[in-house]
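Handout, section 4.2: multi-component inputs.
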Amino acid sequence: MTNPLLDIRSLNKSFGALKATDNVSLDLYPGEIHALIGPNGAGKSTLIKQIAGGLPPNSGEIWFDGHDMTGLSTTARARAGLGRTFQISSLAMEYTVLQNAVLGAVGQQGTVWRFFRPVMGDAALRGAAMAALERVGLQDLASKRTADLSHGQRRLLEVAVALTLNPRVFLMDEPMAGLGAGGSKRLTGFLDGLRSEAPILLVEHDMDAVFALADRISVLVYGKVIATGSAEEIKADPQVREAYLGEEGVA
Amino acid sequence: MTTLLLIEQILNGLQFGVMLFLMAAGLTLIFGVMGLINLAHGSLYMVGAFAAAAVAEATGSFLLALIASLIAAAAAGAIIELVVIRRLYDRDHLDQVLATFALILIFSEGTRWLFGSFPLFLDIPDALAGPVILPGGIQYPAYRLLIIAIGLLIAFGLFQLIARTRIGIQIRAGESDREMIAALGVDISRLYTIVFALGAALAGLAGALVGAIQSVQVGMGEPVLILAFVVIVIGGIGSIKGALVGALLVGLTDTLGGVLLPGFFGTFMEPSAATAVGSSLASMSIYILMAGVLLFKPTGLYGGA
Amino acid sequence: MSREAMINTVLFLMLPVTAVSALLLDEPFIITLTTKVAILALAGVGLNIALGLGGLVSLGHAAFFGIGGYAMGILAYHAQTFTPLMEAPFLIEGTKSMPVIWLVAVLAGALAALAIGALSLRTSGVYFIMITLAFGQMLYYFAISWPAYGGEDGLSVYVRNGFPGLNTLDPIQFFALSFVILAMALLFAGRLAAAPFGLALSAARQNAERVETVGLSPYRLRLLAFVISGAITALAGALFADLNRFVSPTMLSWHMSGEIMIFVILGGVGRLFGPVAGAALFILLEHVLGGLSDFWHVYLGILLLLVVLFARGGMIGSLAGRQVAHD
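Output:
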């Protein structure tokens, strides 16, 4: 039995009286896609921030490949191999698609402290960037300004930049959001193949994608993980049904 | 350094601090509510002083002069808010800095054109020109005591305004979430103009009050502006309480530092070196204080997010 | 050649052409004026690295300008009075050699920027602006109150410092020196912007979170940019003091900080040749408008206001259009 690559232990976070994260434990094994679902307001974003590094938890630990990552900054976690995509695209808007991807390559190769050679002329960086863009299908838009991209294209660019980092683990926050039916299908296929390179902790609302992709699903409600299991187990779980059907009614 | 002298310097420090508070309160409100950094605040201080000097000369009444300073500064503030500042709320800080710096140039040169380069004089009213005998036999200028009193009164008034009135609630809400209160139907434009004019009036009053002790001249607002910035960095942007605490700290540090440091160095250095080192350090003391606060609390003593 | 490149070429050639024309027309004052433009442009190039590329609104850059000026002033003062700067623990004498002075100025500027930057960059937004302003003022008041080097009255240097092989008192030769340094700085700044470091720094300006997520530290990037920026501005300060043969606390005042920022903005913030255009425009205004009216600062203020409100890209932005992505 292999050890989990990402091991989140008993995470707690409160904002005043509001308990946003309530004793959450999750893990991620190599080769799997572990989906995190839950109704709006469940605290998914807060949880993601604690894992990615922007928000320190009140208590609990985050272990990454056998090392305690809890005290590390976002930058350090990224360098350790955590590849994150944002729910609301976080990209350098003035840059072209290619420049954003090259930025990722620069980060990955650690060659940022270079002052004299033009970065966009560097074959290695450009190559790595274009390879990532090709994998998500954005290679034809390489010269387009990021601000001019459609919402869905920006999501793909997020994924591409994460790819350039050659991460050990992917942390993806609603990558399907804003993609049409065709785009979602393509990305679903893409993520399916991606899991063998690095496992994915996938936060998603798109249930088709979740049930198609996830090896395991955890359900987050009011900051607490109320169930973890396979798709069938989750669909049958009475607490999950109450959380969704009792409040929103899931199609 | 006698106790008498020390107490006098402490009072001077308080008086200085209270004046800084008037400047800083306006600045911090404007930043807290509108998210705007306003370099032209020093110019509003100057406008108040000049208005007071002009009215005092024309009417001979100090009271009228003070009222004039409030009105002139508030009016100037309202005008620039409507014409210029309004366009800057959505801009980044660089644009705000540059635009308000441009306003400084316009105000300073404009004032110089109107009034000339020589300082104007504003006289302390005769009734307040003498000293007051305080408990312990200390003599202290009545006028400076009045300044301390006015400043503390205004501080109290501001706290009440923010805590208890409708405008105060809008201000506090605006500081937390600008978009929300607009959605709730509060007239944002009007609120912003009022806040800006209020800040301006406070600055103008400070200028007039200080103008009687020092002189009234172009550029008088700038050293005060920068000190006010130091105050709100120390106190925390957006916090009136922080502005008061920061202002008193800065006022006392600056005044006492200038008096005590040369003496301190004099205990183990020869007099000329002591004076040199002491006064240099004294002039830097406030900034050292600021750096110290920032090392431990990068958003100031009472700063929020 | 892109429009911006054409404009840059014109701006670049404009300076030596003006200087040589002035030489031929026997107008040494114009040569000196052109030298002033080159030196102020250099200060702007320094600031632009922090401001335009890095997005750091430093309102205290005069600190570095003044440190460079005082580096020159102090070294030259000790040389001209034949007194050593320091005797123990080791002997440091004054010097009137420009290369040495420049080295000292650059190091002093870099160190000061490291100290100020390390503290200031822990804050952001408005705090950063106010803190850089405050540190600049701190040095200003220090210079006024420190009696050894003139205090408020400043320090005069009787003879211009020397550069091996040149007669630096000859206006055209001093211009050539300043211009070559400006050219080197422009080349450096240009390469910096196109290099990985520039890419990351500018990305941090646009979206710091994104930079963190690719494993880079915005703080470290900005600190280095700030140090480089301070060093270049300090070099400009040393040259400026040499031009005027005078250094005073005014070089450290926040008005000076504001002016340097104005050159950069008027020319076009973030544009490589922005400071050159801006400095030229500023000096032109100073002499043309200043000759007409004593209150020309009002017009400068109005122009600045108009540029900020309606023509954000400055001169180059308005002429060359949107910045071409380096691709």
